Automatic annotation (TrEMBL):
This is TolB protein, periplasmic protein involved in the tonb-independent uptake of group A colicins. InterPro entries: 6-blade_b-propeller_TolB-like.
Amino acid sequence: MKKWIYLFVGCLLLFNKSVYAVDPDLDWKTIESEHLYVHYAEGNKALAERALTIAEKAHLRLTKELDWYPIEKTHIVLSDETDQPNGFAFPVFFNRTVIFLAPPTSVNTLEDFDDWMTTLIVHEYTHIIHLDKSAGSPESLRNYFGRFLFLFPNLFQPSWVIEGLATHKETDEKRGVGRGQSAMFASMMRAEVAKGLQPISHVNFPVATWPAGTTRYLYGVYFMKFISEVYGEDKLQLWIEKYSNNLFPFFINTNANKTLGKNLMPLWSEYQQWLRGKFQPQIEDITAKGIVAGKQFSKEAYRTGSVQSIATAKGEEVYFVQNSGYKRSHLMHVDTKGNRKVLADLNNGAGLDLHAKAGLLLTQNEFCNYFTIYSDIYHYDVKNNKLQRLTECGRFLSARWMPDGEQIMAVHHEAGKFELQLLDKKAAFKENLWQAKRGEILGQIDVSPDGRSVVASLWRKGDGWNIERFDIASKHWTKLTRGVSIAANPQYTANGDILFSMEVNDVYNLHQYKTDTGDVTQLTNLIGGAFQSSQATTDGPIYYAGYSAEGFAIYKLELDDTEKKAIDIVELLDDTIITEPFTLTEDHLQIFDYTITPHKQRDYGAWSSLRPRWWFPTFEFSDQRSQYGVQTAGSDALAIHNYFLAANYDSKLEKPAASLSYSYASRYFLSYTRLNEIFLDIDGNLNSVSGRDVVSAAFALHDRKIQNQSDFLFSIIYDKTANNELINGSVNIESFEDHLLGFAWLYNSADFNPLSISLNDGMNVRLVAEDSDLLGSDFAGQIYTLDWRQYIRTGRESTIALRFVQGWGSDQPRPFRLGGEGANQDTLEVLLNGASSEGVFDRRKYALRGYKEGQPQLIGRRAQLLSAEWRIPIQRIERGVMTPPVGITQWFGSIFAETGSAYRNSPDTYYSSAGIEVTADINVFYNLLLRTRVGYAHGFDSDIGEDRLYLKVGSSF
């Protein structure tokens, strides 16, 4: 009944997903230049001025290089709603990019830059120019239809092309910046070459197996470099030019043939050979010197990291953060006997510190409000097995115990500004020890065993990332390394020496700095890399986070098993390690001193960007209807206001129809829909045409955490159907009203992990109360619905899924209906990448496999349903073809049984069934996921049960 309303709400969710709404409660401001608008929250004008200057320079460079000049100004949104470095760009409804103000603070593939905002803006502005670019038919049609989605040819190609080009443009070999020349990307590609390079049939599609989301950047940027070196930069530009002329998308093979003289398959083979020629000699050189590596200590690799070891009376214990890709990150404990235990579920990216008496200190991301996710400090009480959040919206990126266990040293961040703060043991502020200058970045820290100093990875303008030591008493920094080789992850040992990771010859290896002599020892010699580390006792084993082709894992390095060699500092490290005060040498990064011209600030106004930027005709023809219409949608630059408009005229019925919908920041939803419904007599002839008006208003309150989410929804719906045309001799039917007042609580703690086949490790609950009496509906009474879904892990991937539905109606409400195999996903759900757009309110239909829909035995004012499934993995494939662009991510099987009853007062008969399903995650158009299931269900009831075969798009539940 309310499908149009929920379709609209889903569209708004899609818009929000695509363009990212910022916090509407902030005081937003705008400055403007010749080609740009920059929107920012009050207090960040200096950053906005700098971003504007950088983006104008990027505009001049990239428009020339890509030969495209946008007609309208680009909107840049500076967002401080996260502590994670990133950004994104999208060309519909206008050119818009969101820039997160948080810079990288660790080696995470983004660490190689000489000015972070410059690198980020160049990358995102490349997307703007590239994705906006069109030629030929697409460009001509934009003059008529505006910025319609399918008139952006460069959107419709594999993401490795899009991200590869942007990463190629961010990279500057001479300046030594960008991922295309970084040691981290070199390490990752070396590992790929050593293991075996991925085919294009794999890289073309979104993949979850390692390197997961980085795959498109890694293979993409090296492909662009390959084309540039082998065929010339002009051929790369021709590639872009030719594809921008595609009215019909996805012809990447044809485009490659036109520009490079061969299809992508042979070209990819040539590219793979180029990669082997580039990286195999590096592998051989490293191997010839002797691989020095620890043994893998964590059982699985993916995003496992952050390790701490401690010496106890019984021996050595180890704590680390495990993330295998199959389940949530979790805190692992390995006791002195090697027994492993999961202590607590964590959020991704958690960092650890350990104190013998005070326990574990963690930093991890968590929701501050619906729009912001910040890093907070947590305490894990080892004795009581309790994880406690110490700060709310604290924005502490790194935290370490002081030796007494009564105080905490922490790195605080806000809008790109860093501070070193001293906190008490409850993480309450005590003292600000040091404040970084604008542009300085404070990364990982550790406190010396005597509590007198802090060692840190610190980025300074011109110097890059180096290890520095901070004397707490004098509040003075002393450099321990210098030069452009990135040094990170410093960690004190028990005797006061310092372990750290540093790139030398494109490899991150583990090093040890002797504080008494200044001597440095390289501890590992790896093909991949070694990063954060921990050593509990002098000369004891070192545990470190290491990289391989399977991802990050924890390794154990026994020093007795390796020969430590003192490094020839001058020859190998280019005078990187120093024990004297730093003096600038020729080995430094380019210093950017932009000339910034002040711009007049004004309050942000949504109206200027809200106007419709595209329209498209709609048609529907049948023996009963001939509808012609138009539709459009829009959003403001901050994605706070979103709307959808559609209007049509039925020439056979000679009547108009329309749909108008609006949402504000995922809080308020309004819609109006006018429909023309046709009613036939018993002979199938037209009896009447009724006009149906549906007005809806909804309000949402959100309580979000990363591991569980609660939503409270309030809705009022006015729905009236009235005859507006009677055929001669037809009987007039009185108007029908179906008004509804509803409240719902939605709760979700289930998790879908990158390598999962199903939701698992949690529940999904929908509790709804609806009333038809208060608004004078033709239906009467109240409806209460509980829909409980529980997901229980039975193996690494296998899951038992349980569902219980209880619908309870009083008086004469709209009845519940059981039967069928569930509705197919519509186009909206496809765009939502497989997410369910099931309505919250007025839901009366529930699948009962093995039985047809609409049978009177399965209709009643009350209903119960119980389902159970065992979902079993079959194979993860992650392969596809280019023409047409279709691939299979994975497929799995399900065995199910269910029973249900629909009744008036109490259930008389339960109708049961069982069956099997095979589900495949099919990827179409390189980015859209369709979960498709083929099933057989047997209904056990002898009267209405059937053997049913079916094909459906969408999950069962």
